[in-house]
């Protein structure tokens, strides 16, 4: 896989990858008048609805002195980033089949380009949220570890995107299956509910195994200033091991699928 | 660096088709292909549908990988595979062009200038801001072609690209390709035999995944026609072929086995010809009377016997011909009523005023009542070699057509104006 990326013409520099990413962002809503704005508008709408329902309607109390909506959003943003990485990665080889089946193309670039375009929107949202939190004095020095969590989430998401993208080419059912799994995972992840409230309960034994809990809680730690990452070394290590496994799986799958990839997509 | 830009050795390709319910079938699309292409060479690839032409091109383009033998392609390559060529239907013309250039590693100012050049060449003007899905087939192809040739790749692969688009654009494309040919090798996959013969110095003929001919274009066309009629190797030796020709008359020739094609229920046992009563004559000019004799054998009662001839030029292009279905005189009805048995056939035609050079006559027997729905029974391809002599006249084109009247009259107004 790496060999394909770095060998032979046409040379692909960082600049080309950025341009491809820009192209990917534009293409997402190609033909729609508001274009890429939709990528911003849709999550904002969800947040607005949830804010109205939970804070105004159900009157959820602030969590750890943070208004519920801000507490919720600080985990919801990494969640949509993660789900974007997976759904985008799942489709990426098929969306770009017009390239793969027509010209010699560096296939491993595609999940990367897709992931980068998801990262772009994620960073925009994060900047917005950080701004709000800072202006209210809710964030502090813990914010310094945020880039690390973004990177960790990006790495896992990219690895999974590679696996899913290649897998979907062989088994098209994966795409529908992923939609279902993401639903399940959403409720199994501490986005809407507070993990502290779950601790001690029977169900927590299952839920605490969710690797996303580490990342989502990490985002909250960083954004809402709760603790440093090295205070949860074991979870971080487990997460890194998992990421490694996903990447090895992706690389093996790539070696197996690549030779007939264009034929399968044709 | 090697003088070859493509080297293929015993290359093969198998497709795995999943036939539902987990059943897998494999299909051998290409088998044991070996050939080399020099830099700057023009190669044509012809063959029936399903003979593996497109698969070959996909392998050469590097899109698909061979699963047997080896394939080396040196230098940059551009491929125009089918319709599309790496275009996304929802992107606008500009976006697609920019993407194509980006993939060729061209960015910034250079890309902008080239993009404008491409739009000019493709003549897609006002449509460049529209998504390419609204383009007409011709526009699409023009844009794709323009993108692929803009940078003069070392190897250009063209699949049927020139069959869309109007005549003028075809001319423009061919002109552009000829400009490129100094440095680029071109592989042209086509159903257009004429274009293949005109432009390619070598033609590969594919038949059911195998390379059956690699070389001289005119001979390649003969092979192709033989394949279309049932395959040259597959000519069954009917008893009639072994019978000696009837004695006497003009000197008769036995057709060589390689020149024969068709189903062979009816066969041409021997043929002979005269030009202005000269047996085996070679030189023809305007008005030369060519008489052809055929000894034929019908192994069964035909459902309409058709006798025909065709004159091809040295490139294998059909110049003129005729069949007994359209003959104006003679035993036309007789031909239709022939029963099984042996016959001596004779017909004649007058040589037209055509460009000087080498011409070949193909003789044929068919079965049927319409030219386009006949079964080709026995063709003797390129049986006779003629040389046409313009008789001291200049031929303006393939043939001349006399001006039937010519008048020149002085206009009075001219004088007034002066």
Protein traits:
heterodimer, A: 266 residues, mainly alpha, B: 418 residues, alpha/beta, Rossmann fold, Coagulation Factor XIII, Chain A, domain 1, 2 domains, six-stranded mixed beta sheet, 19 strands, 34% strand, globular
Report on the architecture of this protein.
The complex is a heterodimer of chains A (266) and B (418). By secondary structure, chain A is mainly α. Chain A has one domain. In chain A, 73% of the residues lie in helices and 0% in strands. Chain A contains 13 helices and no strands. In chain A, helix 2 (14-28) packs across helix 6 (109-135), helix 4 (68-95) crosses helix 11 and helix 7 (146-170) packs parallel to helix 12 (233-257). Chain A is globular, with a radius of gyration of 20 Å. Chain B is α/β, with parallel strands linked by helices. Chain B has 2 domains: 4-227, P-loop containing nucleotide triphosphate hydrolases (Rossmann fold), CATH 3.40.50; 252-388, abc- transporter (atp binding component) like domain (Coagulation Factor XIII, Chain A, domain 1, Distorted Sandwich). Chain B has helices spanning 53-61, 93-103, 108-122, 137-149, 167-180, 193-199, 217-228, 239-242, 332-337, 412-417; strands at 4-18, 24-38, 42-47, 68-73, 77-80, 155-159, 185-189, 202-207, 210-215, 260-261, 266-275, 278-279, 283-284, 289-298, 305-313, 318-323, 341-350, 357-367, 375-388. In chain B, a hairpin with a 2-residue loop joins strand 11 and strand 12. The chains are: A mainly alpha (266), B alpha/beta (418). Chains A and B meet through helix 2 and helix 5 of A and helix 2 of B.
Summed up, what is this model?
The complex is a heterodimer of chains A (266) and B (418). By secondary structure, chain A is mainly α.
* Count of domain modules of chain B: 2
Overall domain count of chain A? 1
How many β-strand stretches of chain A? 0
Name the poorly predicted regions of chain B. Answer: 232-246
Set down the secondary structure blueprint.
The complex is a heterodimer of chains A (266) and B (418).
Chain A: H1 2-6, H2 14-28, H3 37-57, H4 68-95, H5 97-100, H6 109-135, H7 146-170, H8 173-188, H9 195-198, H10 204-207, H11 211-224, H12 233-257, H13 261-265
Helix pairs in contact in A: 2-6, 3-4, 4-6, 4-7, 4-8, 4-11, 6-7, 7-11, 7-12
Chain B: E1 4-18, E2 24-38, E3 42-47, H1 53-61, E4 68-73, E5 77-80, H2 93-103, H3 108-122, H4 137-149, E6 155-159, H5 167-180, E7 185-189, H6 193-199, E8 202-207, E9 210-215, H7 217-228, H8 239-242, E10 260-261, E11 266-275, E12 278-279, E13 283-284, E14 289-298, E15 305-313, E16 318-323, H9 332-337, E17 341-350, E18 357-367, E19 375-388, H10 412-417
Helix pairs in contact in B: 2-3, 2-4, 3-4, 4-5
